[in-house]
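Input sequence (81 aa), recorded before submission:
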Amino acid sequence: MKPVTVCRGCGRTIDNDFIYCPWCGYSRVASDDSASLEAVFNQLEQLQNDSRNRQISEMEKQLDDLVHELDAIVLSTELHK
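Predicted structure, C-alpha cell format:
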C-alpha cells in the first residue's frame, strides 16, 4: 500500500509521490521553498536515471542472449554443410 496524504486544496486523498494534486493542482511544496523543489527534482532525476540504467542492463542481457543464439545457429548450419 502506497503512503497517501490529504490535499490541502481540495481534501482528496493523493499519493505522497505527487508534487501537485491531480484533482485541483494544489502544490504540496511551498513555492518559496526552492531547496525543497530542487530536492524533489533531484530525486526525480535519480529515479529516471535508475530506470534508464535498469532498462539498459535488461537490453544488454537480451542482446547477449541473441548473440549466443545466433552463434549456435551459425555453428549448426556450418556442421550440416
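Checked by second reader. The chain has a mean pLDDT of 88.
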